[in-house]
Amino acid sequence: MGGVDYRLESYNDTATNGDTVFGNITTSQGGFNLGYAWIDADKVGQITQDDSSIFAVEGVATTADGVKQLTVGTTVDGNKVTLKSGSVSKGLSDSTDADFFQVGVSRALASGANAVITYTDKDSAPATSTETLEVELNVSF
User: What is the pTM for the complete model shown?
Assistant: First the structure.
């Protein structure tokens, strides 16, 4: 498919009779990078790894059976801005999903370093959310 990148992986767990599917579809349109990523497991506890470069929140909770996320990114005045919003299916309990939202901004500095600011708001209990602000200065040698 022209202009669309996709990745699809399927893991078969014969011993527990359950499969896990990971997918990621991305495209760029009009200066925006758009993406949809998901993990779908037949049973809870089958998600044993996530791709942190894709997902804003890890979905490895023992009750989780899936993760879905929409991503939008663009560049504004030299700053790379990325928004991620999604949900971990059964992320808090067997009947409660864990929703999340993340905004990240990064900028290459004249010194060669890269400044990164990330704000994440995610459900940590049915009526409680946890907000995290991370500020990084990355230097490569």
Answer: 0.86
